[in-house]
Design brief:
mainly alpha
């Protein structure tokens, strides 16, 4: 069996297993593994987990949960990988780990001290799941949410990545327009 077929088969089996075990949360479970692989700079791992996430989405879990900052950053990681920007994906992965740590700390504080803190999920006004092709959109949402939550250290890390993504999106749009004229 060719290696690419074996990888696709493995990803399909993992997706089926996650869907059976976690139901609608399968996508989020796969997202954590994707983020871990990107952060570890594991090229084979993040290609596998990106494929697993796509299979889960194809099999009916099309509503992306974007309430948490770390979820928005996972979207950005996926987009960076799809655009063949693995270094950018790795940097976003590091920031996603920091966001996940902050979310876990608040969750732990809430469990320990009662529900005295606003959730890092953005409260009542959650984002509507929305598809966008631009990496810069995903990063600006994450940047806005980090500022709203007072996570200035994460916002500081995201700002230059957003600026780079805007330039890249503009360059791709110009190339597309020039190619189609």
């Amino acid at each position: 069996m060719p290696q690419s077929v074996a990888i696709a088969q493995e990803a399909s089996e993992i997706a089926d297993s996650l869907i059976a075990k976690h139901g609608p949360s399968a996508q989020n479970v796969a997202a954590l593994s994707l983020s871990d692989a990107v952060t570890a700079n594991d090229l084979a791992g993040y290609k596998k987990w990106l494929t697993v996430r796509k299979i889960i989405l194809e099999r009916g879990d099309t509503i992306r949960y974007t309430r948490r900052l770390s979820d928005k950053l996972i979207w950005a990681i996926e987009q960076a990988l799809e655009l063949d920007l693995p270094q950018l994906a790795a940097v976003i992965g590091v920031i996603a780990v920091e966001a996940r740590k902050a979310e876990q700390q608040v969750a732990d504080d809430i469990r320990l001290h009662g529900n005295n803190h606003p959730p890092l999920g953005g409260g009542i006004n959650t984002d509507e799941p929305e598809y966008t092709r631009r990496l810069s959109d995903k990063l600006i949402w994450a940047l806005q949410q980090s500022v709203e939550q007072g996570q200035i250290d994460i916002a500081t890390m995201l700002k230059p990545l957003y600026e780079v993504a805007v330039e890249g999106d503009a360059a791709r749009a110009a190339a597309y327009k020039e190619h189609n004229m």
